[in-house]
Amino acid sequence: MIRYYVSQVATPAADEGSPSQIASTFSQRENKIVLMVSQLTQERRVASITIHDLAGALHLSTGHLSRVFRRTTGMTLEGFLIRQRVELAKRTLLDPRLNVAEVAERCGFCNPAYFASVFKKYVKCTPREFATQPLRWTPVSASALDPTLVQPASAP
Fold first, then answer.
1. Which of 90, 61, 69 is nearest to 147 (CA)?
2. What is the DSSP track for 39-77?
3. What pLDDT sits at residue 126?
4. Cα separation of 87 and 83, whole Å?
5. By the 8 A CB rule, do 130 and 137 touch?
6. Which of 27, 53, 64, 150 lies in disulfide reach of 73, CB 3.0 to 4.6 Å?
């Protein structure tokens, strides 16, 4: 009985398509998931959205969503969300009425020191330096912000 079941499941029927068609279908699903993540982060406040929120909205587990995102874009979902928050912080820092701690909180960072270290890692300057001279610092590339522009990582 088990052998029969395994032979039926393991052997694709003629109408199911070739392995390349099946792989293409999976690839299309994964690309659609990445596009949905990108849309959700644009529609909702990136400062408050979490991987758990995204997974719940897409009816996926957090682990599966993270794996699909990484496999498709070559970057982690956490890294993508952090970069989105850094871009939000760059825009928010242009408001001279806000201090760094307020900007950190508005952009979804719990700790201003952590925010400053992450900001410096991606922008190559401190948040205060950026706020005083925003035009001096080069912008983050578009591909770093939009996962649809990133080519998938090649397998070693």
1. 69
2. HHHHHS-TTT--HHHHHHHHT--HHHHHHHHHHHHSS-H
3. 93
4. 6
5. yes
6. 150
- Cα separations in angstroms, 90 against 15, 31, 41, 42, 130: 52, 28, 17, 16, 8
Q: Which two tokens stand for residue 71?
A: 């496999």
pTM, two decimals, is 0.70
Which of the listed CATH numbers 3.40.50.2300, 3.30.70.360, 1.10.10.60, 3.40.50.1240 matches domain 82-142? 1.10.10.60
| CA nearest neighbour of 80 among 66, 92, 98, 100 | 66
CA gap 48, 58 in Å, rounded: 17
Q: List per-block mean pLDDT (blocks of 10 residues) for the chain, which spans 156 residues.
A: 37 47 66 91 87 94 94 93 94 92 93 94 92 71 50 49
pLDDT of residue 137: 65
The number of residues in the chain equals 156
Q: Where are the domains of the chain?
A: 19-74, 82-142
